[in-house]
Amino acid sequence: MALTVMLLDCGTAMAQDATIVFTPQWMAQAQFAGYYVAEAKGFYREAGVDVKIEHVKVTQLPIDRMRKNECQATTLQLCQALEIADAGTPLVNILQTSMNNAMVIVSARDKNPLTQKGARVGIWSVDFGQLAICMSIKDNLNFQWVRFAQNVNLFVAGALDAMVAMSYNEYYQLLQAGMQISDKAVYRFCDHGYNVQEDGVYMTRAYYEKHRDQARRFAQASRKGWEWAARHPDETLDIVMRYVERDGIATNRIMQRLMLKEVLRLQVDRESKKREFRLRPDMVKLASRLMHENQMLSREVTYEELISEK
């Protein structure tokens, strides 16, 4: 009887935990491999947390889903999180996966992008690219920003002088399209004083305060998924492709293999040489200062505002 009561109590506690709908900030791809692994390998189930992964549409912002209570957790780049917090939605970072910045500017004419003042530069129509805008203002480049949704067609067709890209995504798309890109034509933000962390998992502080234990278990299982992915890249790729194929994403296994390798590389901190899974105070301060100086924030958002314990 005692065992029965204990099991019933455990079941009741589990039932009180609402399902976490988790929305990555982009379509299904290896950028989110660790979460797919955590779901496919049963890590969420083992942690006693019910997680449902739902992706956004191309032009949809995950924070909009969160504000409508359509999801309870999402991935955001740090610069996005700062903007959202500044706009009045308090956030909590429950897991940080990125330790390095992946953004680059690629020149279409084998030139150093910094020499192309006034250039037509492609940038995402969704809410990415804050550091690129900061850099262009600081260096008086007067770029003409051309918004695009998800592909590199304008650049390949010669309609752009340069484009902002992620080293794990659009950069490889350009190479797969047959573009010849020299090192001098690629400006890597991480090498020029803009090494700001990107992807982390966020919840609204209001939701987090009511579901602290659930959030902790979700974060721990997600981290376990990423650690497993780093040790088993081939099987992880198999899992990624199942999600990609389920959602009908136009990609291929080679592209996803390259993306997975680069995403895992970016998770290793340059200084410690480890996967730390933590938000770095110095990077929050750097990003906040840059964005505030360039009038993207009304104030500097602090590290303490984003962490779980205040």
Q: Nearest-angstrom radius of gyration?
A: 20 Å
The low-confidence runs, each spanning 5 or more residues with pLDDT under 50, are 1-16
Total beta strand runs:
10
Overall pLDDT confidence: 90
- State the end-to-end CA separation: 42 Å
Q: Helical region count?
A: 14
Shape: globular
Features:
43% helix, alpha/beta, disordered N terminus, 14 helices
Write up this protein:
This protein is α/β, with parallel strands linked by helices and 310 residues long. The protein has 14 helices and ten strands. A five-stranded mixed sheet has the order 2-1-3-10-4. It has a five-stranded mixed sheet with strand order 7-6-8-5-9, with no helix packed on it. Helix 2 (33-40) packs across helix 11 (233-246). The termini are far apart. Residues 1-16 have low confidence and may be disordered.
Task: Sum this structure up briefly.
With 310 residues, the chain is α/β, with parallel strands linked by helices.
Write the layout of secondary structure elements.
Blueprint: H1 2-16, E1 20-23, H2 33-40, H3 43-46, E2 51-53, H4 62-67, E3 73-76, H5 78-86, E4 91-96, E5 103-107, E6 120-124, H6 130-138, E7 144-148, H7 153-156, E8 162-166, H8 170-176, E9 186-188, E10 200-204, H9 205-210, H10 212-231, H11 233-246, H12 253-266, H13 281-293, H14 303-306
